[in-house]
Amino acid sequence: MRLQALACLLRALTCLLAAPASTGLASVPVVSRHLSTNTLTLQDEDSLRDSARLLKRFHVTGAPVADGSSLSGILSRNDLLVAIDAAFPSDTTETEFAGKIQSLQESQVWQVMASAPTTIIPDASLLTAARIMEGKKLNRLMAKSTYSSVLGVISSTDVVFALLKCDAASTEGFDIDEFTYRCTGDTDDRTSPADDECALDTSVGSYMTKRLYVMQPSMSLKDAARLLRAADVTGAPVLDENDELVGVISRNDLLKVLLTIPPEAEAAGGEALAEAIAQLETKQVADVMSRKSITISPQATMLEAAKLLAREKLNRLMVVEPESGDLCGVLSSTDVVFAMLGCAVGPSEDGDDADIDIEESRLGNMYRRGVY
To answer: What percent of the chain has pLDDT over 90?
Structure first.
Protein backbone atom coordinates (compact mmCIF):
# COMPACT_ATOMS: atom_id res chain seq x y z
CA MET A 1 0.00 0.00 0.00
CA ARG A 2 2.84 2.40 0.85
CA LEU A 3 4.48 1.74 -2.49
CA GLN A 4 1.19 2.41 -4.31
CA ALA A 5 0.73 5.66 -2.39
CA LEU A 6 4.29 6.72 -3.20
CA ALA A 7 3.72 5.95 -6.90
CA CYS A 8 0.53 8.04 -6.92
CA LEU A 9 2.36 10.92 -5.22
CA LEU A 10 5.18 10.83 -7.78
CA ARG A 11 2.71 10.86 -10.68
CA ALA A 12 0.87 13.80 -9.13
CA LEU A 13 4.13 15.74 -8.76
CA THR A 14 4.99 14.97 -12.39
CA CYS A 15 1.65 16.34 -13.58
CA LEU A 16 2.23 19.51 -11.58
CA LEU A 17 5.65 19.95 -13.17
CA ALA A 18 4.22 19.46 -16.66
CA ALA A 19 1.17 21.67 -16.17
CA PRO A 20 1.21 25.27 -17.46
CA ALA A 21 1.31 28.02 -14.86
CA SER A 22 -2.15 29.19 -13.87
CA THR A 23 -1.32 32.88 -14.00
CA GLY A 24 0.96 35.07 -16.05
CA LEU A 25 3.37 34.10 -18.81
CA ALA A 26 6.43 31.96 -18.27
CA SER A 27 9.58 34.08 -18.47
CA VAL A 28 11.27 31.34 -20.51
CA PRO A 29 9.28 29.01 -22.81
CA VAL A 30 9.45 25.46 -21.45
CA VAL A 31 9.08 22.01 -23.00
CA SER A 32 5.94 21.02 -21.10
CA ARG A 33 3.86 23.71 -22.84
CA HIS A 34 4.67 22.46 -26.34
CA LEU A 35 4.57 18.66 -26.12
CA SER A 36 2.92 16.50 -28.74
CA THR A 37 0.78 13.98 -26.84
CA ASN A 38 -1.64 11.19 -27.65
CA THR A 39 0.04 10.28 -30.93
CA LEU A 40 1.40 7.06 -32.38
CA THR A 41 3.19 4.31 -30.44
CA LEU A 42 4.79 1.46 -32.38
CA GLN A 43 5.35 -2.08 -31.09
CA ASP A 44 8.83 -3.57 -31.13
CA GLU A 45 7.66 -6.57 -33.17
CA ASP A 46 5.98 -4.48 -35.90
CA SER A 47 7.44 -5.04 -39.35
CA LEU A 48 9.31 -2.15 -40.94
CA ARG A 49 6.72 -2.04 -43.72
CA ASP A 50 3.79 -1.73 -41.30
CA SER A 51 5.73 0.82 -39.24
CA ALA A 52 6.42 2.94 -42.32
CA ARG A 53 2.76 2.76 -43.31
CA LEU A 54 1.71 3.88 -39.80
CA LEU A 55 4.21 6.76 -39.79
CA LYS A 56 2.80 7.81 -43.14
CA ARG A 57 -0.80 7.52 -41.97
CA PHE A 58 -0.16 9.68 -38.89
CA HIS A 59 2.02 12.12 -40.87
CA VAL A 60 5.00 11.81 -38.51
CA THR A 61 8.65 10.91 -39.10
CA GLY A 62 9.25 9.03 -35.85
CA ALA A 63 7.48 7.42 -32.92
CA PRO A 64 8.16 5.79 -29.53
CA VAL A 65 8.37 2.00 -29.48
CA ALA A 66 6.69 -0.07 -26.77
CA ASP A 67 7.65 -3.52 -25.52
CA GLY A 68 4.41 -4.61 -23.90
CA SER A 69 3.65 -1.86 -21.39
CA SER A 70 7.04 -0.15 -21.27
CA LEU A 71 9.00 2.16 -23.53
CA SER A 72 11.80 0.26 -25.27
CA GLY A 73 13.06 2.74 -27.87
CA ILE A 74 12.22 5.17 -30.62
CA LEU A 75 12.04 4.61 -34.38
CA SER A 76 12.76 7.46 -36.76
CA ARG A 77 12.78 7.94 -40.50
CA ASN A 78 16.57 8.18 -40.30
CA ASP A 79 16.79 4.76 -38.61
CA LEU A 80 14.84 3.33 -41.53
CA LEU A 81 17.07 5.13 -44.03
CA VAL A 82 20.21 3.69 -42.41
CA ALA A 83 18.62 0.22 -42.49
CA ILE A 84 17.93 0.60 -46.23
CA ASP A 85 21.51 1.69 -46.87
CA ALA A 86 22.91 -1.29 -44.93
CA ALA A 87 20.59 -3.82 -46.61
CA PHE A 88 21.86 -3.15 -50.13
CA PRO A 89 25.60 -3.38 -50.90
CA SER A 90 26.71 -1.34 -53.89
CA ASP A 91 27.08 -4.52 -55.97
CA THR A 92 23.46 -5.67 -55.41
CA THR A 93 22.09 -7.23 -58.60
CA GLU A 94 18.57 -6.93 -59.97
CA THR A 95 17.91 -10.57 -59.08
CA GLU A 96 19.04 -10.04 -55.49
CA PHE A 97 17.17 -6.76 -55.04
CA ALA A 98 13.62 -8.17 -54.85
CA GLY A 99 14.55 -10.67 -52.15
CA LYS A 100 16.52 -8.14 -50.15
CA ILE A 101 13.74 -5.56 -50.20
CA GLN A 102 11.17 -8.13 -49.09
CA SER A 103 13.46 -9.23 -46.26
CA LEU A 104 13.95 -5.59 -45.23
CA GLN A 105 10.21 -4.88 -45.22
CA GLU A 106 9.59 -7.94 -43.04
CA SER A 107 12.32 -7.02 -40.53
CA GLN A 108 11.08 -5.94 -37.11
CA VAL A 109 11.34 -2.55 -35.43
CA TRP A 110 13.55 -3.71 -32.56
CA GLN A 111 16.27 -4.64 -35.06
CA VAL A 112 16.79 -1.05 -36.28
CA MET A 113 15.39 1.32 -33.64
CA ALA A 114 17.36 3.54 -31.28
CA SER A 115 17.11 1.60 -28.02
CA ALA A 116 18.10 4.44 -25.70
CA PRO A 117 15.86 7.44 -26.51
CA THR A 118 17.22 10.81 -25.44
CA THR A 119 14.95 12.36 -22.83
CA ILE A 120 14.46 15.83 -21.40
CA ILE A 121 12.69 17.00 -18.26
CA PRO A 122 9.35 18.75 -18.95
CA ASP A 123 10.32 22.01 -17.21
CA ALA A 124 13.50 22.46 -19.27
CA SER A 125 13.59 25.48 -21.57
CA LEU A 126 12.95 25.15 -25.30
CA LEU A 127 16.44 26.51 -25.94
CA THR A 128 17.88 23.68 -23.82
CA ALA A 129 15.92 21.24 -25.97
CA ALA A 130 17.30 22.96 -29.09
CA ARG A 131 20.89 22.59 -27.83
CA ILE A 132 20.43 18.88 -27.14
CA MET A 133 18.85 18.28 -30.55
CA GLU A 134 21.57 20.17 -32.38
CA GLY A 135 24.38 18.57 -30.36
CA LYS A 136 23.11 15.02 -30.94
CA LYS A 137 21.64 15.65 -34.41
CA LEU A 138 18.14 14.60 -33.33
CA ASN A 139 14.72 15.71 -34.54
CA ARG A 140 12.82 14.81 -31.35
CA LEU A 141 13.22 14.23 -27.62
CA MET A 142 11.07 12.29 -25.16
CA ALA A 143 9.85 14.43 -22.25
CA LYS A 144 10.15 12.50 -19.00
CA SER A 145 10.70 13.29 -15.33
CA THR A 146 12.95 11.09 -13.22
CA TYR A 147 10.16 8.99 -11.73
CA SER A 148 7.46 9.24 -14.37
CA SER A 149 6.25 7.61 -17.53
CA VAL A 150 7.00 9.49 -20.73
CA LEU A 151 4.79 12.58 -20.95
CA GLY A 152 5.14 13.30 -24.66
CA VAL A 153 7.43 14.20 -27.52
CA ILE A 154 9.04 17.55 -28.33
CA SER A 155 10.29 17.90 -31.91
CA SER A 156 12.62 20.39 -33.54
CA THR A 157 9.60 21.67 -35.46
CA ASP A 158 7.76 22.28 -32.17
CA VAL A 159 10.75 24.22 -30.82
CA VAL A 160 11.27 26.38 -33.92
CA PHE A 161 7.63 27.31 -34.40
CA ALA A 162 7.08 27.96 -30.68
CA LEU A 163 10.09 30.27 -30.26
CA LEU A 164 9.35 32.13 -33.51
CA LYS A 165 5.67 32.40 -32.44
CA CYS A 166 4.63 30.71 -35.65
CA ASP A 167 1.29 29.15 -34.75
CA ALA A 168 -1.63 28.41 -37.06
CA ALA A 169 -3.04 31.92 -36.59
CA SER A 170 0.23 33.48 -37.77
CA THR A 171 -0.19 31.87 -41.21
CA GLU A 172 -3.68 33.22 -41.84
CA GLY A 173 -3.65 35.33 -44.98
CA PHE A 174 -0.18 34.06 -45.91
CA ASP A 175 -0.37 33.30 -49.63
CA ILE A 176 1.80 30.23 -50.21
CA ASP A 177 0.89 30.22 -53.91
CA GLU A 178 3.15 33.25 -54.25
CA PHE A 179 6.09 30.97 -53.45
CA THR A 180 5.12 28.07 -55.72
CA TYR A 181 7.63 26.89 -58.30
CA ARG A 182 6.55 24.36 -60.88
CA CYS A 183 9.10 22.69 -63.09
CA THR A 184 8.74 23.51 -66.79
CA GLY A 185 6.56 21.04 -68.65
CA ASP A 186 5.34 19.20 -65.56
CA THR A 187 1.63 18.93 -64.80
CA ASP A 188 1.60 16.42 -61.93
CA ASP A 189 3.27 16.61 -58.52
CA ARG A 190 4.54 13.05 -58.89
CA THR A 191 4.52 10.28 -61.47
CA SER A 192 5.14 7.15 -59.41
CA PRO A 193 5.12 3.62 -60.84
CA ALA A 194 1.66 2.08 -61.03
CA ASP A 195 2.47 -0.77 -58.64
CA ASP A 196 4.25 1.50 -56.13
CA GLU A 197 7.00 -1.08 -55.77
CA CYS A 198 10.62 -0.02 -56.07
CA ALA A 199 12.90 -1.97 -58.38
CA LEU A 200 16.65 -1.67 -58.61
CA ASP A 201 16.32 0.74 -61.54
CA THR A 202 13.41 2.82 -60.17
CA SER A 203 14.38 6.42 -60.84
CA VAL A 204 14.38 9.45 -58.58
CA GLY A 205 12.22 11.21 -61.16
CA SER A 206 9.41 8.74 -60.41
CA TYR A 207 9.08 9.82 -56.78
CA MET A 208 10.39 13.37 -56.50
CA THR A 209 8.07 16.26 -55.69
CA LYS A 210 7.77 18.58 -58.68
CA ARG A 211 5.45 21.30 -57.37
CA LEU A 212 7.76 23.10 -54.98
CA TYR A 213 7.65 25.92 -52.47
CA VAL A 214 10.72 28.12 -52.79
CA MET A 215 12.18 31.12 -50.99
CA GLN A 216 14.16 34.16 -52.04
CA PRO A 217 17.49 35.04 -50.36
CA SER A 218 16.04 38.35 -49.10
CA MET A 219 13.08 36.75 -47.32
CA SER A 220 12.99 37.31 -43.52
CA LEU A 221 13.36 34.35 -41.17
CA LYS A 222 9.92 35.11 -39.75
CA ASP A 223 8.33 34.76 -43.18
CA ALA A 224 10.47 31.70 -43.90
CA ALA A 225 9.09 30.00 -40.79
CA ARG A 226 5.54 31.02 -41.73
CA LEU A 227 5.98 29.51 -45.19
CA LEU A 228 7.31 26.22 -43.80
CA ARG A 229 4.34 26.09 -41.44
CA ALA A 230 1.72 27.05 -44.03
CA ALA A 231 3.12 24.70 -46.71
CA ASP A 232 3.64 21.86 -44.18
CA VAL A 233 7.25 21.24 -45.24
CA THR A 234 10.49 21.13 -43.25
CA GLY A 235 12.72 22.77 -45.84
CA ALA A 236 12.72 24.60 -49.16
CA PRO A 237 15.07 25.51 -52.04
CA VAL A 238 16.30 29.09 -52.23
CA LEU A 239 16.23 30.59 -55.74
CA ASP A 240 17.62 33.93 -56.91
CA GLU A 241 15.88 36.35 -59.28
CA ASN A 242 16.97 34.18 -62.24
CA ASP A 243 15.42 31.05 -60.70
CA GLU A 244 18.88 29.61 -60.11
CA LEU A 245 19.38 27.39 -57.05
CA VAL A 246 21.59 29.25 -54.56
CA GLY A 247 20.90 27.32 -51.37
CA VAL A 248 18.49 25.41 -49.15
CA ILE A 249 16.89 26.46 -45.88
CA SER A 250 15.45 23.98 -43.42
CA ARG A 251 13.87 23.77 -40.03
CA ASN A 252 17.30 22.74 -38.68
CA ASP A 253 18.88 25.94 -40.05
CA LEU A 254 16.29 27.91 -38.08
CA LEU A 255 17.03 25.80 -35.00
CA LYS A 256 20.75 26.63 -35.30
CA VAL A 257 20.15 30.36 -35.59
CA LEU A 258 18.01 30.30 -32.43
CA LEU A 259 21.05 28.95 -30.59
CA THR A 260 22.87 32.25 -31.28
CA ILE A 261 20.62 34.01 -28.75
CA PRO A 262 22.92 35.61 -26.13
CA PRO A 263 23.07 33.63 -22.84
CA GLU A 264 22.17 36.75 -20.85
CA ALA A 265 18.94 37.20 -22.86
CA GLU A 266 18.04 33.54 -22.35
CA ALA A 267 18.75 33.76 -18.62
CA ALA A 268 16.71 36.96 -18.24
CA GLY A 269 13.75 35.58 -20.20
CA GLY A 270 10.68 37.76 -20.60
CA GLU A 271 11.14 40.93 -22.67
CA ALA A 272 14.90 40.42 -23.06
CA LEU A 273 14.40 37.00 -24.68
CA ALA A 274 11.50 38.26 -26.80
CA GLU A 275 13.63 41.15 -28.09
CA ALA A 276 16.51 38.80 -28.98
CA ILE A 277 14.15 36.54 -30.92
CA ALA A 278 12.57 39.54 -32.68
CA GLN A 279 16.02 40.60 -33.89
CA LEU A 280 16.66 37.13 -35.29
CA GLU A 281 13.32 37.16 -37.12
CA THR A 282 14.46 40.12 -39.21
CA LYS A 283 17.54 38.28 -40.51
CA GLN A 284 17.39 37.22 -44.14
CA VAL A 285 17.28 33.69 -45.49
CA ALA A 286 20.64 34.35 -47.20
CA ASP A 287 22.22 34.83 -43.75
CA VAL A 288 21.43 31.32 -42.49
CA MET A 289 20.72 29.07 -45.49
CA SER A 290 22.98 26.17 -46.47
CA ARG A 291 24.77 27.35 -49.60
CA LYS A 292 26.22 23.96 -50.50
CA SER A 293 23.28 22.09 -52.00
CA ILE A 294 23.84 18.37 -52.55
CA THR A 295 22.03 17.47 -55.76
CA ILE A 296 21.06 14.37 -57.67
CA SER A 297 19.90 13.64 -61.21
CA PRO A 298 16.29 12.60 -61.88
CA GLN A 299 17.74 9.61 -63.76
CA ALA A 300 19.57 8.33 -60.66
CA THR A 301 18.05 5.35 -58.87
CA MET A 302 16.20 5.49 -55.57
CA LEU A 303 18.84 3.21 -54.06
CA GLU A 304 21.55 5.69 -55.07
CA ALA A 305 19.49 8.45 -53.44
CA ALA A 306 19.04 6.41 -50.25
CA LYS A 307 22.78 5.84 -49.95
CA LEU A 308 23.57 9.51 -50.60
CA LEU A 309 21.03 10.68 -48.01
CA ALA A 310 22.33 8.21 -45.42
CA ARG A 311 26.00 9.02 -46.08
CA GLU A 312 25.52 12.80 -45.95
CA LYS A 313 22.92 12.64 -43.13
CA LEU A 314 20.45 14.74 -45.14
CA ASN A 315 16.67 15.07 -45.07
CA ARG A 316 16.31 16.06 -48.74
CA LEU A 317 18.10 16.24 -52.07
CA MET A 318 17.69 18.89 -54.73
CA VAL A 319 17.00 17.18 -58.07
CA VAL A 320 18.57 18.98 -61.02
CA GLU A 321 18.92 18.27 -64.72
CA PRO A 322 22.54 17.23 -65.36
CA GLU A 323 22.97 19.26 -68.55
CA SER A 324 21.17 22.51 -67.75
CA GLY A 325 21.54 22.51 -63.98
CA ASP A 326 17.87 23.53 -63.69
CA LEU A 327 15.99 22.56 -60.53
CA CYS A 328 13.38 19.97 -61.47
CA GLY A 329 12.25 18.58 -58.12
CA VAL A 330 12.98 17.70 -54.50
CA LEU A 331 13.39 14.19 -53.11
CA SER A 332 13.07 13.84 -49.35
CA SER A 333 14.33 11.02 -47.17
CA THR A 334 10.67 10.38 -46.34
CA ASP A 335 9.95 9.83 -50.05
CA VAL A 336 12.77 7.28 -50.22
CA VAL A 337 11.86 5.42 -47.04
CA PHE A 338 8.16 5.16 -47.84
CA ALA A 339 8.79 4.10 -51.44
CA MET A 340 11.33 1.40 -50.60
CA LEU A 341 9.28 0.04 -47.69
CA GLY A 342 6.19 -0.38 -49.84
CA CYS A 343 4.07 2.69 -49.10
CA ALA A 344 1.98 4.32 -51.83
CA VAL A 345 2.79 7.89 -52.83
CA GLY A 346 0.42 10.62 -51.68
CA PRO A 347 -2.39 10.70 -49.07
CA SER A 348 -3.52 7.32 -47.78
CA GLU A 349 -6.40 7.83 -45.37
CA ASP A 350 -8.14 4.89 -47.02
CA GLY A 351 -5.16 3.62 -48.98
CA ASP A 352 -2.50 0.98 -48.54
CA ASP A 353 -2.50 1.21 -44.73
CA ALA A 354 -6.26 1.00 -44.23
CA ASP A 355 -5.97 -2.68 -43.26
CA ILE A 356 -3.66 -1.97 -40.29
CA ASP A 357 -5.46 -2.28 -36.98
CA ILE A 358 -5.07 0.99 -35.04
CA GLU A 359 -5.80 -0.40 -31.60
CA GLU A 360 -5.96 1.91 -28.59
CA SER A 361 -2.59 0.66 -27.32
CA ARG A 362 -0.95 2.39 -30.30
CA LEU A 363 -2.31 5.78 -29.25
CA GLY A 364 -1.10 7.78 -26.30
CA ASN A 365 0.50 6.46 -23.13
CA MET A 366 0.94 2.84 -22.08
CA TYR A 367 -0.20 3.88 -18.59
CA ARG A 368 -3.07 6.31 -19.10
CA ARG A 369 -4.92 7.68 -22.07
CA GLY A 370 -3.79 10.99 -23.52
CA VAL A 371 -0.07 11.03 -22.79
CA TYR A 372 2.91 8.82 -23.52
So the answer is: 54
